[in-house]
Amino acid sequence: MACSSVFFGVSLKQRYFLLFCVAAAAIVAYQFNRSRPAVKMNRVEGLRADSSHFTLEGKPFTLLGGSIHYFRVPRAYWEDRLLKMKACGLNTLTTYVPWNLHEPERGVYIFEGQLDLEAYLHLAASLGLWVILRPGPYICAEWDLGGLPSWLLRDENMRLRTTYSGFTDAVDSFFDRLIKKVVPHQYSKGGPIIAVQVENEYGSYAQDEDYMPFIKEALLSRGITELLLTSDNKEGLKLGGVRGALETINFQKLNQKDIEYLDEIQPHKPKMVMEFWSGWFDLWGGLHHVYTAEDMLPVVTAVLNKEMAINLYMFHGGTNFGFMNGALAVGLPAPKPMVTSYDYDAPLSEAGDYTSKYHLLRNLFSRYHTQPLPDLPSLRERRAYQPVVIQQQLSLWDTLHFTDKPLKSEKPVNMENLPANNNNGQSYGYALYQTAIASGGVLNSKNNVRDRALVFVDKHFVGVLDYQTRELAVPDGKGKRTLSLLVENCGRVNYGKTLDDQRKGLVGDIEFNKRLLRDFIIHSLDMKPGFVNRLEKSGRWVSMRQQSSFPGFFQGRLYVNSFPKDTFIKLPSWSKGVVFINGKNLGRYWTIGPQQTLYVPGPWLHRGDNQVIVFEEQETDGKIQFASSPDYGMPVDVQ
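The structure assignment produced for this chain is given below.
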């Protein structure tokens, strides 16, 4: 009444002004609330597993989940991917947290930009998605060392994923920083997190019976109050659980006996497939794994018909940008690294495209909603840019003064124990080991090369040492010559019982003519952004008219004359190396395949000239090609 009397006691002009102010305030309030996470007040009871079905606020809850890792998707595309998840009918997002990215050096924490976990949680909430957080500390994920930071391996006595104090002290320090950021985003505090996983697939490792209780207590003591879960494949269920956490199962094929076993070990509890493997990962030198929609859909349907909760791993895979890919050792004579793409043959492709799986799943999941699903977000246009002609080159040997001061050492030193990165060691990339020889003869790696070494004598290429090739003939020559081994960390094993053995570089002695080589000069070549930036600005680049020198860096310019669009790089006449665009590491390429293209996100480009630098080991035709579609190589059925 008072407001209306004030309104009618003013002039017409003042009325219009007041109406404008009210409307403006309403718009601002709407935008503010739209950007905030969806907060439901008076929340009493979060996700519960007290009966054979999940409940949320005491009501039956059908959990339809999907995995999208924020660290594998350019931040500019987070919203696009999550909107497409929601439009498929999923209601829950699951994500890992990669310790190695958030704490790249001991005591140095990064939670900004691409690694702004809280922004990711806010976004999920604002779009109406619940979240299951899988904070590790070990995550597997086909990610280098399963997400554990490599500086842990500086300790020669390190026992990862155990209650060894060197490990638990590091976990405690990381969780002190991580969990306090997570706690405010729990359901009970108005946030989207409805469950938190205790470690990951510990039943397949199981080296310490006190470890899982330690991790559980590490979460609870720091304020985690939501439902706790564990996750294991059928073999790991017997050893991977911890009292007070709901056990869930991982699989691709539905086996009734596995479900019955899950029922036996925790009767009258909800059953959940934490990882329903919607596709599979690829290894360098192998084929591209596909899991057809026709094979996948009946399994998902059967899981839902059994009234089980499901999480699609992956719903959208993304990319192993940089040097972050893991490696597989289980069942192989030697480790094999994962490729750069993590497309995973998932329902939503690496570049965010809908697949036949997506449309079939959307139709299936729509039956579990009372309201129509959101319209499909529009797809983003892609472009095959004109080829880039390499204009300049820089020999690897001419870049060594751009690296940190080299280490002089009597014996070889592995990457992790190099005095690089504020004495945190070298985590990724290459290391160059140089020493003097005075004759020809036979070089024997004694299987101490991790993982692959290009061998040079006075900068002339001699051959490759790796897990298969351990001996190499070195030609005769006059006087003292420099023997160089450029050793690449191709990716640390991420799964299995060999995690403690994942030190890289030269991890022991090398023999020449049956005598141990000594007196090394060791250069760290981790190719971090600062190094690439120094290269770009150096005045040492030479024209491609000169004979190419390998290994080397090759530079060209991609001109974009309109709004930048996603694209894929093709390097059919190059052999093996790494691509950087505007300083960002797109990842490795290798002609042995199966992957033949590298994903380039449009947001990482800009109008005008874009700098492309390729580190190539052995061969180039001087051209970088582009495609509008990926080439993941010859397919093979994952089954």
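Interim note for the steering committee: The two ends are 73 Å apart (CA to CA). The longest strand covers residues 552-560.
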